[in-house]
Amino acid sequence: MMEDGIKRIPNEILVNIFHIGHRSTDNYSFLISVTHVCRRFRTLALQESTLWTRINAGRSQTSDKILALIGRSRQQDLDVTFINGGCEILFGMRTFYDTFQASSLRWTSLHTGSDSFQYIPVDLPLSRVRRLSFVKESTMEDVHNIPWMLPGLQIFHGINILPKFCYATPLLTICSLSFSEWYLDASGFMTCLSHLLCIEDLRLVFQDTTLSDDGFGADALLTMPAVQTFSVTFGDEGGTRLVKALLSRLVMTNLSRLIICSKDAIDASFVLEPLRVSSSGYFRVFGSPREIDVEILSTEGVDITPLLLEPLQFVRHLSIIIPHAKFIKTLASHQGGNEDPREKLGSLQSVRFINCHRIHEKQVENLADRLLENVSGRGLQLLEIFSCKGISKRFLMDMSHKLGDKISWRM
């Protein structure tokens, strides 16, 4: 029965299944197994060139096998990984150039590391590489020279390293730097950022990261005029202090969107703490983003009332991505008194809830009644509910009928 069922599956669906299975692995183990199932599977897999575009030059590969896999990709763009390659074993009598030169102009994505990159010739043609991922392996250095000419580079992702590009990267606009269990040299980090003045989308992740004793010091501010989107992820109180110290040194005059993420916070106001100057307000030296996304991945309930009633004064659009978001206090009881909560919204115009599965329909109705714009023109202009499991489609349709374009939703 199973065999007959497989025979009935159209070729295009089988190919999609092959793609899904291949994406679930870091190598070609799934595809190699597929080609041994039957003649039909092998023929389909070998005909579909897009299945063979991820080249992982690891210890388990030989140069002949890599060349065979590259050949199966035909003229498709290639995503190449070269980390811990074990070059002496991998190439034998064949050089890196012999194996990769003919295909290097098809590379659009390269993943390598601080130990492995030295085997990639600096004059290898890499003009079409758009994405570069660079991982610290076993070396002690924090700053790593990126030696290749990468005129088409658009995205860089570094893990536990500070990049220093040896050639101009005029198209590089997205930079992601992640640090985990790391001792971060503040001076070197600021020097690194000073070389990234064309970056429009800056993403920083600090997990268990310790700042050097001198911190960011009292040096001059660093202006990053091109940054429009700034994303920062941190964990504990040490991460909060690090991010706060960093923001006190950065000026992002064109910043329009700020994304703040924490994995462990149980109070949503914790993620905004790095922005606070004192108990009475928040500083704006780093820019005035009109849109803020707050993402908290904690498995415990997270009180989000402060986000709504203690907003940053310059923010117009707030997105809340907190699966375990809840209201510990009601809007009426927060900070006491009978003041209309609309008076506390400041410049806030819209609130979007995304994947907030613990928010219930009654709470949404209460939010709409107490926060949406009233006849005097005060309050939110838009309430958005996206993919919140505790809220039914029927309820949202009823709310749409009642509120019109003041509420937007998607299941």
Characterise this structure.
The protein has 411 residues and is α/β, with parallel strands linked by helices. Among the domains are: 1-50, no CATH class; 256-411, Leucine-rich repeat, LRR (right-handed beta-alpha superhelix). It is built from 12 helices and 22 strands. It has helices at residues 2-8, 11-23, 29-35, 39-47, 63-72, 87-91, 96-100, 186-194, 237-247, 305-309, 361-371, 393-403; strands at residues 54-56, 78-82, 107-113, 131-135, 143-146, 155-159, 162-165, 174-184, 201-211, 222-223, 229-234, 250-251, 257-262, 276-278, 281-282, 291-296, 302-303, 317-321, 325-326, 350-354, 382-386, 407-410. The protein has a 14-stranded parallel β-sheet with strand order 1-2-3-4-6-8-9-11-13-16-18-20-21-22. Strand 20 (350-354), helix 11 and strand 21 (382-386) form a beta-alpha-beta unit. The longest helix has 13 residues, at 11-23. It is globular. It starts with a helix and ends with a strand. 30% of the residues are buried. The model has no long low-confidence stretch (mean pLDDT 83).
